[in-house]
């Protein structure tokens, strides 16, 4: 009798376990990936540029540089690092993130709550927008401008009116990820570097969940840098040729990289310029 009761109890326990395995919700973190890099090629970069935003559009590289009195909008030759055009920004602004929208370039400012909209062909300022938060990084999807403000929040704006339409909180395993900085929209995901780290978060634009992390540790040796603020802060994507570029504030190089699983053997495929 005792054996029969024990067997019935064990059968009940197995049924409960089976039910949990079959019907329990799948964790949102189960699909998170961890990646690192291989260097494909390096390009020269102005080491005096305090990089705040970097984009690659229609074969052209554009950069926003910061600091009061030294902020600028630039078009650069990727191969040589030569500045092809430069528009200095008013001394009252500390320029920040940069993105394109149609035939314009949109440049944020840090604490002035003003975005500058330029004609992409001439660098002429067409208009300005205001926003309540600080401006850090900027990118866009098919219908919205996406702004980071140094917190865990990403703000979505209508690109014509600059009215906020929604916002998401970026979280990794339920914990808020703060100090999100430079942004780039790649393959339906938001890439965001975390200020003063060597990591880029890959973020779901629908939920704010961190889908994965990219570790760029060792990409730019500290021995080649001259300033404590010379940190990772520049992500650009060439959609036509599926190329990913990264750089940093006051870095002497732009790196074209390919992403690999974190545990992959790092065999350089580097062709230095």
UniProtKB/TrEMBL annotation:
InterPro entries cross-referenced by the UniProt entry: QCT, Quino_amine_DH_bsu
Annotated keywords: Signal
Domain of life: Bacteria
Signal peptide location: 1-24
GO MF entry, a single one: glutaminyl-peptide cyclotransferase activity
Record's protein name: Glutaminyl-peptide cyclotransferase
Protein species of origin: Telmatobacter sp. DSM 110680
Highest classification ranks of the organism: Bacteria, Pseudomonadati, Acidobacteriota, Terriglobia, Terriglobales
